[in-house]
Amino acid sequence: MKKFSKYFTFEELTRTNPEIFKRYGVKNEPNAQQIENLQRIAKTILDPLREAIGKPLYISSGYRNLQYNKIIGGAPGSQHTIGEAVDIDGDVTGVSNRLIFEELKKLPFDQIIWEFGDKEPDWVHVSLRKEKNRGNILKAVRSNGVTKYVTFAQEKS
């Protein structure tokens, strides 16, 4: 396994569904620029997040080439397709997705998205650009079968 950073491997950040590979023959191989982007997000966000939480993290989706992204219904123009985004699912390793979301706010980022769910996101999306990060904190919601991204509003206590 090729290490990208202290805690994360190339395989984790390029993971795909084996059934899609079998069915469509899609290879998910990033180019040199996409690899550089993945390494940046691993070292700048994922390693510090892992250390803050103190438990392993599961990357449910990292780099996705255009063909794979389209097959799985990813957003056109997704930052996943250039290696600037990952989805983290704490449920797999026993970490609260809400905790992941809150800890990510303390790190540099382009976007953090609370992906569906009410009291707890189903998973968390985070992206990082080389420069000009927007610092957007969003929530994905479904409206009439369409996914929309709205500004995340903190719950009132």
Describe the structure.
Helices cover 30% and strands 20% of the residues. With 157 residues, it is α+β, with helices and mostly antiparallel strands. It has one domain (10-151): Muramoyl-pentapeptide Carboxypeptidase, domain 2, CATH 3.30.1380. A 6-stranded mixed β-sheet has the order 1-2-4-3-5-6, covered by helices on one side. The mean pLDDT is 93.
Strand order across the largest sheet: 1-2-4-3-5-6
CATH topology: Muramoyl-pentapeptide Carboxypeptidase, domain 2
What is the SS-derived class? alpha+beta
Specify the number of helices: 5
Radius of gyration (Å): 15 Å
Strand content: 15-25%
Biggest beta sheet summary: 6 strands, mixed
Q: N- to C-terminal separation?
A: 45 Å
What is the count of structural domains?
A: 1
What pattern of helices and strands is seen along the backbone? Answer: HHHEHEHEEEE
Principal-axis shape equals: globular
State the oligomer: single chain
Mean pLDDT: 93
Quick overview:
The protein is of the alpha+beta class. It is built from 5 helices and 6 strands. The chain is globular and about 40 Å long.
List the helices and strands and how they pair.
Elements: H1 10-13, H2 18-24, H3 32-53, E1 59-61, H4 66-71, E2 85-88, H5 97-104, E3 111-115, E4 123-127, E5 136-143, E6 146-151
Parallel strand pairs: 3-5
Antiparallel strand pairs: 1-2, 2-4, 3-4, 5-6
